[in-house]
Amino acid sequence: TAKRSGRGGIVAFDQSMQDRLRETLTVSRLLRGALERDELMLYVQPQIRLRDGRTSGAEALLRWRLPDGSMIPPATFIRAAEHSGQIVEIGAWVLAKACALLAGLTDRGIACPRMAVNVSPRQFRDPDFVRMAIGTVRRAGLSPSAIELEITESLLLDDREAMTGLLHDLRSEGFRIAVDDFGTGYSSLSYLQRLPVDCVKIDRSFVKSLESDRSARTIAACITRLGQELGLTTLAEGVETREQEAILRDLGCDEAQGFLYAAPMPAPALADWL
Ligand code: C2E
Ligand code: MG
Ligand code: MG
Ligand code: MG
Protein backbone atom coordinates (compact mmCIF):
# COMPACT_ATOMS: atom_id res chain seq x y z
CA THR A 1 0.00 0.00 0.00
CA ALA A 2 1.25 3.44 -0.86
CA LYS A 3 1.55 6.17 1.71
CA ARG A 4 -0.59 9.27 1.62
CA SER A 5 1.54 12.34 1.98
CA GLY A 6 0.18 15.63 3.23
CA ARG A 7 -2.65 17.61 1.67
CA GLY A 8 -4.28 16.57 -1.56
CA GLY A 9 -3.57 12.93 -0.79
CA ILE A 10 -0.61 12.75 -3.13
CA VAL A 11 0.68 9.21 -3.19
CA ALA A 12 4.38 8.78 -2.65
CA PHE A 13 6.45 5.64 -2.77
CA ASP A 14 9.23 5.28 -0.28
CA GLN A 15 12.46 3.50 -1.09
CA SER A 16 11.45 0.08 0.21
CA MET A 17 8.26 0.19 -1.86
CA GLN A 18 10.28 1.06 -4.92
CA ASP A 19 12.67 -1.79 -4.22
CA ARG A 20 9.84 -4.21 -3.79
CA LEU A 21 8.16 -3.06 -6.98
CA ARG A 22 11.40 -3.39 -8.93
CA GLU A 23 11.96 -6.86 -7.50
CA THR A 24 8.43 -7.91 -8.43
CA LEU A 25 8.83 -6.62 -11.97
CA THR A 26 12.20 -8.28 -12.44
CA VAL A 27 11.10 -11.63 -11.05
CA SER A 28 7.87 -11.61 -12.98
CA ARG A 29 9.70 -10.84 -16.26
CA LEU A 30 12.14 -13.70 -15.60
CA LEU A 31 9.21 -15.93 -14.66
CA ARG A 32 7.53 -15.28 -18.00
CA GLY A 33 10.63 -16.67 -19.67
CA ALA A 34 10.63 -19.60 -17.28
CA LEU A 35 7.11 -20.53 -18.28
CA GLU A 36 7.98 -20.27 -21.98
CA ARG A 37 11.13 -22.34 -21.56
CA ASP A 38 9.46 -24.94 -19.38
CA GLU A 39 11.77 -24.32 -16.43
CA LEU A 40 9.23 -24.96 -13.68
CA MET A 41 9.36 -28.38 -12.09
CA LEU A 42 7.15 -30.30 -9.75
CA TYR A 43 8.73 -31.73 -6.62
CA VAL A 44 6.84 -33.84 -4.10
CA GLN A 45 7.31 -34.68 -0.44
CA PRO A 46 5.68 -37.75 1.16
CA GLN A 47 3.37 -37.47 4.15
CA ILE A 48 3.45 -40.22 6.76
CA ARG A 49 0.80 -41.59 9.11
CA LEU A 50 2.39 -41.69 12.56
CA ARG A 51 0.21 -44.55 13.77
CA ASP A 52 1.68 -47.12 11.38
CA GLY A 53 4.31 -45.33 9.31
CA ARG A 54 2.39 -45.72 6.07
CA THR A 55 2.35 -43.05 3.41
CA SER A 56 -0.85 -41.03 3.59
CA GLY A 57 -0.10 -38.77 0.65
CA ALA A 58 2.36 -36.31 -0.81
CA GLU A 59 2.60 -32.54 -1.10
CA ALA A 60 3.37 -30.92 -4.43
CA LEU A 61 6.10 -28.28 -4.16
CA LEU A 62 7.15 -25.99 -6.95
CA ARG A 63 10.76 -25.58 -8.14
CA TRP A 64 12.26 -23.32 -10.76
CA ARG A 65 15.27 -24.78 -12.51
CA LEU A 66 17.51 -22.36 -14.33
CA PRO A 67 19.26 -23.42 -17.56
CA ASP A 68 22.53 -23.70 -15.59
CA GLY A 69 20.90 -26.34 -13.41
CA SER A 70 20.55 -24.25 -10.25
CA MET A 71 17.28 -24.42 -8.35
CA ILE A 72 15.34 -21.39 -7.18
CA PRO A 73 13.17 -22.07 -4.12
CA PRO A 74 9.53 -20.94 -4.22
CA ALA A 75 10.00 -18.50 -1.33
CA THR A 76 11.91 -16.23 -3.70
CA PHE A 77 9.37 -16.07 -6.53
CA ILE A 78 5.88 -17.02 -5.30
CA ARG A 79 5.24 -13.58 -3.84
CA ALA A 80 6.19 -11.83 -7.07
CA ALA A 81 4.02 -14.29 -9.00
CA GLU A 82 1.12 -13.43 -6.71
CA HIS A 83 1.59 -9.70 -7.27
CA SER A 84 1.85 -10.07 -11.03
CA GLY A 85 -1.06 -12.53 -11.20
CA GLN A 86 1.15 -15.18 -12.81
CA ILE A 87 0.42 -17.47 -9.87
CA VAL A 88 -2.99 -18.14 -11.45
CA GLU A 89 -1.37 -19.77 -14.48
CA ILE A 90 1.42 -21.36 -12.45
CA GLY A 91 -0.98 -22.72 -9.84
CA ALA A 92 -3.12 -24.31 -12.54
CA TRP A 93 0.03 -25.90 -13.97
CA VAL A 94 0.99 -27.30 -10.53
CA LEU A 95 -2.47 -28.79 -10.02
CA ALA A 96 -2.44 -30.39 -13.47
CA LYS A 97 1.05 -31.84 -12.89
CA ALA A 98 0.11 -33.14 -9.44
CA CYS A 99 -3.03 -34.79 -10.86
CA ALA A 100 -1.06 -36.36 -13.72
CA LEU A 101 1.46 -37.75 -11.24
CA LEU A 102 -1.24 -39.24 -9.02
CA ALA A 103 -3.14 -40.68 -11.99
CA GLY A 104 0.08 -42.23 -13.30
CA LEU A 105 0.82 -43.89 -9.96
CA THR A 106 -2.73 -45.21 -9.74
CA ASP A 107 -2.44 -46.69 -13.25
CA ARG A 108 0.70 -48.54 -12.18
CA GLY A 109 -1.02 -49.88 -9.08
CA ILE A 110 1.14 -47.80 -6.74
CA ALA A 111 -0.90 -46.58 -3.79
CA CYS A 112 -0.76 -42.90 -2.93
CA PRO A 113 -3.99 -41.96 -1.15
CA ARG A 114 -3.84 -38.26 -1.94
CA MET A 115 -1.94 -35.33 -3.31
CA ALA A 116 -1.76 -31.98 -1.52
CA VAL A 117 -1.42 -28.79 -3.56
CA ASN A 118 -0.67 -25.29 -2.25
CA VAL A 119 -3.15 -22.67 -3.39
CA SER A 120 -2.39 -18.98 -2.97
CA PRO A 121 -5.05 -16.41 -2.01
CA ARG A 122 -4.65 -14.78 -5.42
CA GLN A 123 -5.80 -18.00 -7.11
CA PHE A 124 -8.95 -18.10 -5.00
CA ARG A 125 -9.80 -14.60 -6.17
CA ASP A 126 -9.79 -15.81 -9.76
CA PRO A 127 -13.49 -16.30 -10.66
CA ASP A 128 -12.61 -19.38 -12.70
CA PHE A 129 -10.76 -21.22 -9.92
CA VAL A 130 -13.43 -23.74 -8.90
CA ARG A 131 -14.24 -24.65 -12.50
CA MET A 132 -10.56 -24.93 -13.37
CA ALA A 133 -9.86 -27.17 -10.36
CA ILE A 134 -12.77 -29.53 -11.04
CA GLY A 135 -11.98 -29.70 -14.76
CA THR A 136 -8.30 -30.43 -14.13
CA VAL A 137 -9.00 -33.20 -11.65
CA ARG A 138 -11.68 -34.83 -13.83
CA ARG A 139 -9.56 -34.68 -16.98
CA ALA A 140 -6.89 -36.64 -15.13
CA GLY A 141 -9.51 -39.27 -14.31
CA LEU A 142 -9.36 -38.55 -10.59
CA SER A 143 -11.93 -37.76 -7.95
CA PRO A 144 -11.57 -34.43 -6.13
CA SER A 145 -11.43 -36.42 -2.88
CA ALA A 146 -7.87 -37.44 -3.86
CA ILE A 147 -6.79 -33.80 -3.84
CA GLU A 148 -6.14 -31.71 -0.76
CA LEU A 149 -5.99 -27.95 -1.29
CA GLU A 150 -3.66 -26.21 1.16
CA ILE A 151 -4.75 -22.74 2.12
CA THR A 152 -3.13 -20.26 4.47
CA GLU A 153 -4.77 -18.31 7.25
CA SER A 154 -4.12 -15.08 5.37
CA LEU A 155 -6.74 -16.14 2.82
CA LEU A 156 -9.39 -15.41 5.41
CA LEU A 157 -8.19 -11.87 5.91
CA ASP A 158 -9.28 -11.16 2.34
CA ASP A 159 -13.03 -11.33 2.16
CA ARG A 160 -14.25 -13.72 4.76
CA GLU A 161 -17.74 -14.26 3.35
CA ALA A 162 -16.62 -14.89 -0.21
CA MET A 163 -13.73 -17.14 0.82
CA THR A 164 -15.92 -19.18 3.16
CA GLY A 165 -18.42 -19.65 0.34
CA LEU A 166 -15.68 -20.76 -2.02
CA LEU A 167 -14.32 -23.28 0.43
CA HIS A 168 -17.82 -24.68 0.91
CA ASP A 169 -18.18 -25.03 -2.87
CA LEU A 170 -14.86 -26.86 -3.15
CA ARG A 171 -15.66 -29.08 -0.21
CA SER A 172 -19.04 -30.01 -1.62
CA GLU A 173 -17.28 -31.02 -4.85
CA GLY A 174 -15.25 -33.42 -2.72
CA PHE A 175 -11.93 -31.61 -2.36
CA ARG A 176 -10.17 -31.84 0.98
CA ILE A 177 -9.05 -28.59 2.57
CA ALA A 178 -5.95 -28.20 4.76
CA VAL A 179 -4.84 -25.10 6.65
CA ASP A 180 -1.10 -24.70 6.04
CA ASP A 181 1.42 -23.17 8.48
CA PHE A 182 -1.19 -23.20 11.21
CA GLY A 183 -0.46 -21.00 14.20
CA THR A 184 1.57 -18.38 12.37
CA GLY A 185 -1.29 -16.30 10.94
CA TYR A 186 -3.61 -13.71 12.37
CA SER A 187 -6.98 -15.37 12.20
CA SER A 188 -8.96 -16.38 15.24
CA LEU A 189 -9.23 -20.02 16.25
CA SER A 190 -12.99 -19.97 15.80
CA TYR A 191 -12.77 -20.10 12.02
CA LEU A 192 -11.62 -23.72 12.27
CA GLN A 193 -15.04 -24.51 13.61
CA ARG A 194 -16.84 -22.39 11.06
CA LEU A 195 -14.92 -23.40 7.98
CA PRO A 196 -15.11 -26.63 6.03
CA VAL A 197 -11.59 -27.77 6.87
CA ASP A 198 -10.28 -31.36 6.96
CA CYS A 199 -6.70 -30.98 8.09
CA VAL A 200 -4.54 -28.62 10.13
CA LYS A 201 -0.81 -28.47 9.38
CA ILE A 202 1.23 -27.55 12.44
CA ASP A 203 3.85 -25.06 11.30
CA ARG A 204 7.48 -26.11 11.22
CA SER A 205 8.47 -23.28 13.57
CA PHE A 206 6.76 -25.16 16.44
CA VAL A 207 8.03 -28.58 15.38
CA LYS A 208 11.62 -27.34 15.11
CA SER A 209 11.92 -26.51 18.79
CA LEU A 210 9.75 -29.30 20.22
CA GLU A 211 12.64 -30.91 22.10
CA SER A 212 14.13 -27.72 23.49
CA ASP A 213 11.30 -25.29 24.04
CA ARG A 214 8.40 -25.98 26.38
CA SER A 215 6.21 -23.31 24.85
CA ALA A 216 6.59 -24.76 21.35
CA ARG A 217 5.56 -28.10 22.79
CA THR A 218 2.55 -26.54 24.48
CA ILE A 219 1.45 -24.92 21.24
CA ALA A 220 1.85 -28.18 19.30
CA ALA A 221 -0.15 -29.96 22.01
CA CYS A 222 -2.92 -27.37 21.85
CA ILE A 223 -3.19 -27.48 18.06
CA THR A 224 -3.29 -31.29 18.12
CA ARG A 225 -5.96 -31.27 20.80
CA LEU A 226 -7.97 -28.64 18.96
CA GLY A 227 -7.80 -30.72 15.79
CA GLN A 228 -8.92 -33.84 17.65
CA GLU A 229 -11.82 -32.07 19.30
CA LEU A 230 -13.00 -30.66 15.98
CA GLY A 231 -12.56 -33.97 14.17
CA LEU A 232 -9.73 -32.76 11.92
CA THR A 233 -6.58 -34.53 10.82
CA THR A 234 -3.44 -32.96 12.27
CA LEU A 235 -0.18 -33.03 10.33
CA ALA A 236 3.17 -31.77 11.62
CA GLU A 237 5.47 -30.20 9.03
CA GLY A 238 9.24 -30.15 9.06
CA VAL A 239 9.84 -33.24 11.20
CA GLU A 240 13.58 -33.90 11.17
CA THR A 241 14.32 -36.13 14.18
CA ARG A 242 13.03 -39.30 15.82
CA GLU A 243 12.63 -37.33 19.06
CA GLN A 244 10.28 -34.86 17.40
CA GLU A 245 8.37 -37.76 15.89
CA ALA A 246 8.03 -39.47 19.28
CA ILE A 247 6.76 -36.29 20.94
CA LEU A 248 4.23 -35.72 18.17
CA ARG A 249 3.02 -39.31 18.32
CA ASP A 250 2.58 -39.01 22.09
CA LEU A 251 0.58 -35.83 21.59
CA GLY A 252 -1.74 -37.73 19.27
CA CYS A 253 -0.74 -35.97 16.07
CA ASP A 254 -1.97 -38.01 13.08
CA GLU A 255 0.54 -37.37 10.35
CA ALA A 256 3.99 -35.94 9.69
CA GLN A 257 6.09 -34.66 6.84
CA GLY A 258 9.76 -33.75 6.87
CA PHE A 259 13.37 -34.57 6.10
CA LEU A 260 13.22 -37.47 8.60
CA TYR A 261 11.13 -39.37 6.05
CA ALA A 262 12.09 -37.71 2.79
CA ALA A 263 13.12 -34.35 1.40
CA PRO A 264 11.06 -33.05 -1.51
CA MET A 265 12.03 -35.06 -4.60
CA PRO A 266 11.45 -34.67 -8.34
CA ALA A 267 7.98 -36.01 -9.22
CA PRO A 268 9.26 -39.04 -11.21
CA ALA A 269 11.19 -40.28 -8.13
CA LEU A 270 8.04 -40.73 -6.03
CA ALA A 271 7.08 -44.07 -7.58
CA ASP A 272 10.36 -45.68 -6.47
CA TRP A 273 10.17 -44.08 -3.05
CA LEU A 274 6.67 -45.46 -2.51
P1 C2E B 1 4.85 -25.04 2.72
O1 C2E B 1 3.64 -25.33 1.90
O2 C2E B 1 4.65 -24.85 4.18
O3 C2E B 1 5.84 -26.23 2.40
C1 C2E B 1 6.72 -26.77 3.32
C2 C2E B 1 8.13 -26.27 3.10
O4 C2E B 1 8.96 -26.83 4.10
C3 C2E B 1 8.74 -26.69 1.77
O5 C2E B 1 9.60 -25.62 1.37
C4 C2E B 1 9.56 -27.92 2.15
O6 C2E B 1 10.62 -28.17 1.27
C5 C2E B 1 10.05 -27.52 3.50
N1 C2E B 1 10.35 -28.67 4.34
C6 C2E B 1 9.73 -29.86 4.36
N2 C2E B 1 10.25 -30.67 5.31
C7 C2E B 1 11.23 -29.97 5.91
C8 C2E B 1 12.14 -30.28 6.99
O7 C2E B 1 12.13 -31.35 7.58
N3 C2E B 1 13.01 -29.28 7.36
C9 C2E B 1 13.03 -28.08 6.72
N4 C2E B 1 13.92 -27.18 7.13
N5 C2E B 1 12.18 -27.75 5.71
C10 C2E B 1 11.30 -28.69 5.31
P2 C2E B 1 9.63 -25.13 -0.11
O8 C2E B 1 9.46 -26.28 -1.05
O9 C2E B 1 10.84 -24.26 -0.28
O10 C2E B 1 8.33 -24.24 -0.21
C11 C2E B 1 8.20 -23.08 0.54
C12 C2E B 1 6.79 -22.53 0.46
O11 C2E B 1 6.51 -22.08 -0.87
C13 C2E B 1 5.72 -23.56 0.76
O12 C2E B 1 5.58 -23.72 2.15
C14 C2E B 1 4.51 -22.93 0.11
O13 C2E B 1 3.94 -21.95 0.94
C15 C2E B 1 5.12 -22.24 -1.09
N6 C2E B 1 4.89 -23.07 -2.28
C16 C2E B 1 5.59 -24.15 -2.72
N7 C2E B 1 5.04 -24.65 -3.85
C17 C2E B 1 3.96 -23.87 -4.11
C18 C2E B 1 2.95 -23.88 -5.16
O14 C2E B 1 2.90 -24.73 -6.06
N8 C2E B 1 2.00 -22.89 -5.09
C19 C2E B 1 1.98 -21.95 -4.10
N9 C2E B 1 1.00 -21.02 -4.10
N10 C2E B 1 2.89 -21.94 -3.11
C20 C2E B 1 3.87 -22.87 -3.12
MG1 MG C 1 2.08 -26.43 1.99
MG1 MG D 1 3.31 -25.63 5.35
MG1 MG E 1 5.50 -23.76 6.06
From TrEMBL:
Coiled coil (UniProt feature): none
UniProt GO MF annotations: cyclic-guanylate-specific phosphodiesterase activity
GO biological process: one example: phosphorelay signal transduction system
Ranges for domain EAL: 24-274
Superkingdom to which the source organism belongs: Bacteria
Keyword line: Phosphoprotein
Protein name: Transcriptional regulator
Source organism of the structure: Azospirillum thermophilum
Covered range of the whole protein: 472 to 745 of 745
